[in-house]
Amino acid sequence: VQLQASGGGLVQAGGSLRLSCGTSGRMFSNNAMGWFRQAPGKEREFVAGISWNGSSTKYADSVKGRFTISRDNAKNTVYLQMNSLQPEDTGKYYCAGARVSLVPTTTPDYTYWGQGTEVTVSS
Q1: Cα dist. 63→13, 30, 69, 73, 81 in Å?
Q2: Sign of CA dihedral 94, 42, 48, 65
Q3: β-pair type (117-122, 9-12)
Q4: Among 65, 93, 111, 116, which has the highest number of CB atoms less than 10 A from its own CB?
């Protein structure tokens, strides 16, 4: 199983980015998916997650109201729309897949990981 994240980049504070994560292999439509991020010198943290069919989503308090996670099972792709970006959103963003259909929020609950995409928000 491979997860390929893309869409990161450099953006000014207040700007937007849309991350995408495509998958290969025999997983996706029955699996919850999530986005995590890791800033330099910090631990990887949960950002957002979505259930297998998109009916349930969870967000970290720090991104509620600004980020939106969605998925297209026909395209085996999960998205993270990030609006009103702030410098504290800077980090490497990872997509992950869980072996469950509901939405876990901790790193150990996710089995499959992508290589990450860098997001830098300048002030």
Answers
A1: 14, 25, 11, 24, 11
A2: negative
A3: parallel
A4: 93
